[in-house]
Each structure stands twice: as C-alpha cells, then as structure tokens.
Design a protein that fits this description.
Number of helices: 11
Structural class: alpha+beta
CATH architecture: 3-Layer(aba) Sandwich
CATH topology: Glutaredoxin
Number of domains: 1
CATH superfamily: Glutaredoxin
Order of helices and strands: EHHEEHHEHHHHHHEEEH
CATH class: Alpha Beta
Strand content: 5-15%
Low-confidence stretches: 3-58
Helix content: 40-55%
Oligomer: single chain
Amino acid sequence: MKKTTVYSMSPTSSSTAPTTGSGQNAAPLLDRRQVMTGAGALGLGLALNGGLGLTPALAAPSLEDKLAPRVIGDPNAPILLAEYFSLSCSHCADFHFGAYKKIKSDWIDTGRVRFEMRDFPLRGPAIFAHALARSVPANAYEGMIDILFKQQKQWVTADDPVSALARIARIAGIGNDAFVGIIEDRPLLEGIIAIAQDGYSRWDINSTPSFVVNEDQVIRGNKGYDEFLSVLNAYST
C-alpha cells in the first residue's frame, strides 16, 4: 500500500496531508505551478524533437465530460464501491488484475455494485496518465486504464515517462499535438487534483488503493476478494 501527500491546491500553499511512508521517500507531490511548468516544458521538448509521429487525434470530449465520474457497471446498482487509485501505484495494478476481476464478474456485471474510479495520482508523471485516461471517450476509459496498468512498469520507469505515455496515447488515436494539449490542460489537471483533494478532505485518503463503500466505510490497501466479499455482503442484506 503506497502512502503519499495529495497535490496542494495552490502554488503557494503547503499540503497538510501526511508525507509518504511504507518504504517510499517522504516527499511532497507537485503543486499546481509545478504541474503546469513541467507540462509546458515537456510539450516544448516534444515539439522541438519533431513529435512522435502519432496518429490523428480523436474528437476530444468536453472538460465537463472528462471530469465526470467514471462509473463501471449499472449506475443504479444499490452498492457504490469507489476506488481512490494512482496509475503509477503497483499495488493498484495488482488490485486491478486481481481482486477487481472477481468483484467485476460477481458484483458489477450482475448489477449489484457500481464501481467508481477516483483519481489520486502519486508523484511523478501519474497525473498525466490520469489526464490521458480521462481524455478518451468515456466508453473507452476502462480499456485505457487496463492498458496503462499493463504497461505501468514501462512508462513509470522510462527515462522519459511522458514520451512513453505519448506512445501509449497512439493506441487511442491521440496524436502528438493532442497529447501535448492534454498534459498542458490546466483545468483538466486541476480537476484531477480536486478529486484527490476531496478524497483526502472527506475520507482522510492518504494511500492507494483506498476504497469507500456507499460513501460510508473506508477500506485501505490492496485487499483480497474475500475481504471485499464480507463487506459487500453486509451492504447487500
């Protein structure tokens, strides 16, 4: 389970969230100014290098659509299971390819649970990965998350992780210009920060993955299916 500080909500403010733990270096995440300065520099670097030759971009969703809740399953299902996750978190990837698959087949696909994915990007390029996932059409979101988790080691450990993400964007038909636009989209990046900040403020989320059941109970860490089963059964009676 990875612990981290959430992104601060203003260039001059200092975060009040806990610093990192569980073996990670205690370091704050990017604030808004750092996010935008880094995005601009990365975009300029891509442009100066002639781009990556990606395919033409798909029609971009509106900002409202990009920041809309990402719910998997029947939106009217009686149980809401929300995950606060980071695309750079190995424990989140383990959950995605482990317990989540069983939850999906037994609870989501059967109409008993609606599963919401809530952004909580950890330090580094994770915020750009989250922005990329939210920039594809909503019906392609789950597939893009799957790809980003499957290729997590490649882009997280790359010498140039943003260029690695740009290559992944090709799968969604997002060309270089559109990708640069995504990582420089301040309202989108700030919207993602706001989702993380809300999780910290409302539920004291300070690690990933963390889960909130029916906006009532918090489950922390990469738990096995049986641990979710006991909780979900309690809410289904």
